[in-house]
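Example 3.2
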Amino acid sequence: MAVVDPFDRPVTRVRISVTSACNFSCFYCHREGFLPNSSSEMRPEEIERIVRVMASLGVSRVKLTGGEPTVRPDIVEIVGRLASISEIIDLSMVTNGSRLAKLASELKEAGLDRINVSLPSLRPDRFAHITGVSLLSEVVSGIEAAASAEFSQLKINRVILRGINQDETEELIELARDLGAMVQLIQLEDADPESPLLKAYGFGLQDLIGLVKELGGKLVSIRDDMQNRLVFDVRGVKVEVVGPMGNPDFCARCTRIRITSDGRFKPCLFLEENTVDFLRAMRAGADNDTLKALYLRAISLRKPYFGWIIRVDEGVSEVGH
């Protein structure tokens, strides 16, 4: 049975940043909403231990992130340790793909179920402008290796940036068709809806949906397990639209907690002040009951960042940020 937060949201998923390091410098990156408090990263056995504690309290899905998770030389060991936890039914990773050509088969053999690879552009000049590196060919090779490894799902992610890459969406879908992959089109996000970043490059949710429909997309499902994301079929390719900004279900349906690379529970992507440090306690000899208490404290601090409307007996009220 999953633990429920003060807003009646069960917590069944954890997104773990295994490192703050990255070999890319994408100009829109939100760095998972945190800056590390120290240079100390969790060791593989520490990641396994805290996930086992959380699994005993209802967490069943784990996603590994960074920074860039594959820059850790022990990433395959981390995957193997987490895959050994019987309560974990889904283990996935999001990566920039630059090191995936050499790692894809090892990650699959270690127990990774699904993989998401970010591909901001298929044009070398645009790719370099967005990421700060000239590694497009390495990323494409990594995606091809992931397809060959036959994960249960391969998803190619792209943040749509107005004026930069929205005009090559069809090329991305064609690549996905060739490789048997899904596509995830992501609306640019920022904690501040009036930020210069969004004003310069933001692409509206309805515009994003319109872009997919213009390519022949037909709505085939709505993922009520993931903030009511829309899933389209574009000539045989599943295309998922992720639009958190302006999506009233983003907070209302959130079932995820985060863990930072320096060992803190992070209840919300956009909030830094309510993190709960568990690594310090773990290294000081804390038992599992103490770690459970720290986790439950973090769950108690969960609150919606973006407001949404709820029905009450005498009308409508607004809660949240």
